[in-house]
Structures are given as C-alpha cells and as structure tokens.
Design a protein that fits this description.
Elements lengths: L1 H4 L6 H25 L1 H4 L11 H21 L3 H4 L1 H14 L5 H20 L6 H6 L7
C-alpha cells in the first residue's frame, strides 16, 4: 500500500501509453466519422480560415484520423500531436468562438490534453522507442 501511494512508484511510460491510446483513439473515432461521411459533411464544412472548405476539411481529417493513428502507435508523437493541437485551437477559438462553452467543450478538452501528450512524448511503449532504440527516454 505504501508503494502505491508513493508518487515515484508510478510509471510515466505506462501513463503515456494509456493517454496515447485513449486520446489517439478518440481522435481516430472523430476523424473516421468525417472520413466515411466525407460527401455528406464537406458541403456543411465552412471555409473559416480562408484556405477553402475542402482543404480545411482534408486537414481536419488528417489531424484527427491519421495523426490519431500515429498517436496510438506512438509514432513521432510530439510531431504528430501538432496538427490535432492546431485543429483544436481553430475549432475552439475560431469555428466555435461565438458558441456557448457546452458546444465547444470537446474541442477545449482535446486542446488541453494535447499539452501533456506533447510533454510526455511517446514513452517506452511506442514505435518511437523501438525505432530510436531509447530505453525509457521519451521521444
């Protein structure tokens, strides 16, 4: 019991793994929904940042679905979290700027959770660790 209560006994690599699996899985879920319903959602997707609605939508799918897969695998984790972070910044501060917090709450949670993923990195249980041959060092 004493070991369980000692904060030093908790493993950050396991925490990074759990966070990546859950967080990346949620991004995959949202991105997959957009990907399989591409033709239905695209006409409703606005050009909120001035690069065209189709390009914006494609970038959102890349950030959510493909970067979500990279996060689950722990592949280039710190690099892979940047597109979802940017997507959530745009979703929260631009696309849903005028909406009540209840509407933009999911974007806010994802935005905030990008930060510990970036700080923790991929951890020992990841593709990064295998590729870069790190032993318990975060990549």
């Amino acid at each position: 019991m004493k070991k369980l209560l000692n904060p030093a006994s908790l493993n950050t690599d396991v925490a990074a793994l759990f966070l990546r699996l859950i967080f990346g899985g949620m991004f995959i879920h949202y991105g997959y929904g957009k990907l399989v319903n591409y033709d239905k959602i695209l006409p409703m997707f606005g050009d909120i940042i001035g690069i065209g609605s189709e390009l914006s939508f494609n970038l959102v799918i890349f950030a959510e679905f493909f970067c979500g897969i990279f996060l689950v695998l722990g592949f280039l984790t710190r690099l892979s979290i940047i597109p979802p972070f940017i997507t959530m910044v745009v979703a929260y501060f631009v696309a849903h700027a005028a909406d009540p917090f209840d509407v933009k709450q999911v974007a806010f949670i994802f935005l905030v959770l990008c930060l510990p993923v970036f700080v923790l990195g991929s951890g020992k249980y990841s593709v990064d660790s295998f590729i870069f041959k790190t032993q318990g060092h975060n990549v």
